[in-house]
Amino acid sequence: MRRTMLKTFAAGLAAVAMSGLTGSAFAQQKPVELQFYYPVAIGGPVTEIINDLVADFEKDHPNIKVKPVYAGSYQDSVVKALTAAKAGTPPQLAVLAAADVFTLIDEDAVVPIDSIANTPADKQWLDGFYPALMLNSRINGHTWGVPFQRSTIVMYWNKDAFREAGLDPEHAPANWDELVSAAQKLTRRDASGNVTQWGIKVPSVGFAYWLFQAFTTPAGIELMNPAGTKTFLNAPQAVQSLQYWVDLTTRYKVMPTGAIEWGTTPKDFLEKKAAIIYTTTGNLTNIRTNASFPFGVGKMPAKVRGGSPTGGGNFYVFKKSTPEEKQAAMTFIKWATTPERAAQFGIDTGYVAVTPAAWETPAMKQYVQKVPAAAVARDQLSVSVAEFSTHDNQRVTKSLNDAIQAAVTGTKSPKQALDDAQREADRILRPYAR
């Protein structure tokens, strides 16, 4: 009886041990699951592009499952990501604004990319992105974000409107004086004096601070220091830039009075309500698809130099992830930024393909031959600057946006508005400037 009991006990132990081994094997085979926050409203072409990108990745990597979460605007996305992080349920991976890098660091929400990707091959990979796109990515000796959905501001112009106004349809205004002259010829009024076509529209609602940099960069001033602890919002060149922006409306009468919405500006261009617009290169595919007229794409007109701020989103990896999740996130990031996929994402969306190697792929070479305008934003990278970004970025940016609104709506002079914004920025950044 005792022998039988011992045999039964031993068999039971063996079964438990075998069960543990089987469970461990199954655990090892279970895919790593990643929540991927992505800044776009639900629905639309970009959502479909990301869904397809994820599906292709999962075919290549069946041991990793990626769940996209479409979190709205960049501002919505960073708020949702940080809220989730504080609640202990952050995404493992997100595309968030490159300009929010200081906020993500200060909140201790993300890890340096180079703490995960730290081999010589990884360093070579990180050094393969356009330097201008790394200006909002490399902080205090570490790389915190990987360029993905990146852009510069470009000028779109209606070639038919140029031709009708007696302008060369193949050449965009190269400097501020030429821009005013062209916009005056392009502004059309009916017999009653009502404007039927504006010479230019520059949006001041949505990303006012970014569009402001489309003037301050050519004027030769950067609005913050690389450490994100100081701003120069009321420097003479900044005041001159905002005055020029306001003058397009008040002095030259080539742009509507009051605030101009970011979201409606491309629509106004497509409906021939504006002959020139400033917007992101990320609108290229939209405009190519929907324009009923030939159009051009040009760099920012110069004052003392050329150039635009960079913009758009970087990949970030969140700190409260397991080592396996961090490695899986890096696998996805590296896969999504290979030359072939970076090129295809640029072709599909209009965003700038983020590495020189992407522009050497057969698909991109063929695309540029067909759509030369696609190369404009890439070529502008050589003179581009970092997007406006500081510690406590949302509050500092709001003070600048409010100043721009006050100036373009006429409630304050450009100098008074920027003096007020600088005073507020100094107050907000005082704890970081020590």
Describe the structure.
- With 434 residues, this protein is α+β, with helices and mostly antiparallel strands.
- The chain folds into 2 domains: 30-151 and 311-383, Periplasmic binding protein-like II (D-Maltodextrin-Binding Protein, domain 2); 152-307 and 389-432, Periplasmic binding protein-like II (D-Maltodextrin-Binding Protein, domain 2).
- It is built from 18 helices and 11 strands.
- It has helices at 2-29, 45-60, 74-86, 101-106, 120-126, 159-164, 176-186, 208-219, 236-250, 265-270, 284-290, 323-336, 339-349, 356-359, 362-370, 374-380, 393-408, 414-429; strands at 32-38, 64-70, 93-97, 138-139, 142-143, 146-158, 188-189, 195-197, 276-280, 295-298, 310-317.
- Strands 1, 2, 3, 6, 9, 10 and 11 form a 7-stranded mixed beta sheet that branches. It has a two-stranded antiparallel sheet with strand order 4-5.
- Helix 8 crosses helix 9 (236-250) and helix 17 (393-408) packs antiparallel against helix 18 (414-429).
- The longest helix is centred in the N-terminal third of the chain and has 28 residues, at 2-29.
- The radius of gyration is 26 Å and the shape is globular.
- The N and C termini lie far apart (81 Å).
- It is found in: Periplasm.
- InterPro entries: Bact_solute-bd_prot1 (IPR050490), SBP (IPR006059).
- Residues 411-434 are annotated as: Disordered.
- This is ABC transporter substrate-binding protein.
